[in-house]
Amino acid sequence: MIKLIFFFLIFFKFSYAFEYTKNEGAHLKILNKLTTKNYDLTLPLGQSIELDDIELTVYQCLSLEKEKSNDAHALLKIKSKDKNRDYNFLGWLIKSSPSLINIEDPVFNIILENCIIDDPLFYSLIEIN
What we know:
- It is a single chain.
- By secondary structure, this protein is mainly beta.
- It has one domain (20-127).
- It is 12% helix and 51% strand.
- It has one helix spanning 2-17; strands spanning 20-22, 25-32, 37-44, 48-51, 54-65, 70-80, 88-94, 108-116, 124-127.
- Strands 1, 4, 5, 6 and 7 form a 5-stranded antiparallel sheet that branches. A 4-stranded antiparallel sheet has the order 8-2-3-9, with no helix packed on it.
- A hairpin with a 7-residue loop joins β6 and β7 (88-94).
- The chain is globular.
């Protein structure tokens, strides 16, 4: 009986341990609502980028690979640099459910595209309009 319990504990531990993969960066799509410009942002973990009056940092990016769907979760921090506008966000963005976590920034709409396995070293911001 004890062997059976250990078997199930080990089986469930290893079956859930390999679901999430830690990655080295995040690929984000950013829409500036005022200028209607779209951007592709590749951001390494822990580095910050300043966009107009916000500072954006990705702390963690996890990939979840299943048979039918690939999902990604990113821990993101947005800090307003404008002293007249007190806006801070710290939370998870989910690729499969972008409307689940609503970032209420009046200027930017930020969507997680995927996680990056290889370390990009430096951020890359490309305008795609």
